[in-house]
Design goal:
By secondary structure, this protein is α+β, with helices and mostly antiparallel strands. The strands form 3 sheets. The protein has a 5-stranded antiparallel beta sheet with strand order 3-13-14-12-11. It has a 5-stranded mixed beta sheet with strand order 6-7-8-9-10. The longest helix has 15 residues. Helix 4 runs antiparallel to helix 10, helix 8 crosses helix 9 and helix 10 packs antiparallel against helix 11. The chain contains 11 helices and 14 strands. It is flat. Keywords: 4Fe-4S, Heme, Iron, Iron-sulfur, Metal-binding, Oxidoreductase.
Length: 365
């Protein structure tokens, strides 16, 4: 399949908002009419990328956002059903704490979207020139040594961006991470904007804000927890209005930062905010305690552990999802998180079941 030129993508976005293509997706599914090339590009805003074309049949890859990197056992069950019934058994964990399915047919998409919606999952802004899934530390909320729990910030930031026309036409994808543990590397998965929770000697929480340029990580400053979301929105707005368009290589936020220089970039951000970004802050640096997340760790939830294990094959497929569901259920565990490296952490395993669960997971995965 021929790759669409970035200038052409700009034309497609200008002619019709990609958010508005959802109604067309349902019409194509019901009426069976040929899908226009322009709409195929717009489908990406709902996580759908053309995988292959066989005669008149189109097959898509569907990317589903795993919000806060967290999946419940009920959600795993529904994802297994989607894999089996609509995706020819395919399923894999991919970058930015998402899951993908192949072989998706246009007429099955309404049923898939309904299944996802039934367990509070979706694919809105899973891809496209938008702020995609907000990443976070996979042990946040359970790590005894975390700086703060950022779950609410991550969920609110995702919610404020998703389906929002103000942020639906950026020059390219905008990648954001919010880390409450201090155990995620600054440039994890090539993020554009990075919020790291820090703590002062008197226990006050702030966030150190970094941004990527083409060669390095630059510090914007320090903000309070309540200021993370407004600042992220301002950065997205500035990127929307001033980012380089039509040239894929130079369309990332990093090139705008490099072109302006960090001082001008901070000045423009500050001019859009109602609060002052702190230039410096006296804080206790949180060391990166987890080089990986494999093994059993004591949780901050009494009588529970969290357990990390490495997937030898990220293509977990329907059989793997089904095995995972069964193993978790038999060990009274209900929730997992996906790491930035597409591995798995079981968040709520009872201490008495932890060793047995670890052995079972290692044997099967």
């Amino acid at each position: 399949m021929k790759k669409i030129d970035f200038q052409e993508i700009e034309r497609i976005k200008d002619e019709k908002s990609s958010i508005d293509v959802l109604a067309d997706i349902y019409l194509y599914a019901v009426l069976g009419e040929p899908v226009s090339d322009d709409d195929i590009e717009r489908f990406k805003w709902y996580g759908l990328t053309l995988q292959k074309k066989e005669k008149s049949n189109l097959y898509f890859t569907l990317k589903v956002k795993i919000l806060n990197a967290k999946l419940t056992i009920k959600q795993i069950d529904v994802l297994t059903k989607i894999s089996k019934e609509f995706a020819n058994g395919s399923a894999r964990f991919v970058a930015r704490q998402n899951i993908e399915f192949d072989n998706i047919k246009i007429f099955d998409i309404p049923a898939i979207f309904n299944l996802l919606n039934s367990v509070n999952l979706h694919s809105i802004f899973a891809s496209g020139h938008v702020p995609t899934n907000i990443m976070s530390c996979p042990i946040n909320g359970y790590n005894k040594n975390q700086t703060t729990d950022v779950s609410d910030i991550v969920l609110k930031l995702n919610k404020d961006f998703e389906g929002n026309k103000n942020f639906s036409n950026l020059p390219n994808e905008l990648k954001i991470i919010v880390d409450g543990c201090g155990c995620v590397g600054q440039n994890c998965e090539d993020n554009d904007l990075f919020f790291k929770a820090i703590k002062s000697s008197n226990g006050k929480i702030q966030f150190k804000v970094n941004v990527s340029d083409t060669n390095d990580i630059k510090t914007i400053g320090f903000v309070a927890p309540s200021q993370v979301i407004p600042l992220a929105k301002v950065v997205a707005k500035i990127y929307r209005d001033f980012g380089k368009r039509g040239d894929e290589k130079h369309s990332k936020l990093a090139y705008l930062v490099e072109d302006w220089g960090i001082d001008k970039f901070i000045y423009i951000i500050q001019s859009e905010l109602t609060f002052k970004i702190k230039e410096s802050y006296d804080y206790i640096d949180t060391k990166k305690e987890f080089e990986n997340y494999n093994g059993i760790f004591e949780s901050n939830k009494k009588d529970f552990s969290f357990l990390g294990f490495e997937l030898s094959n990220k293509n977990i497929n329907s059989n793997g999802l089904e095995k995972l569901f069964t193993i978790l259920k038999s060990h009274n565990a209900t929730t997992i998180k996906i790491t930035p490296k597409e591995n798995i952490i079981v968040l709520d395993v009872p201490n008495i079941n932890a060793s047995s669960l670890e052995k079972e997971l290692k044997k099967n995965f």
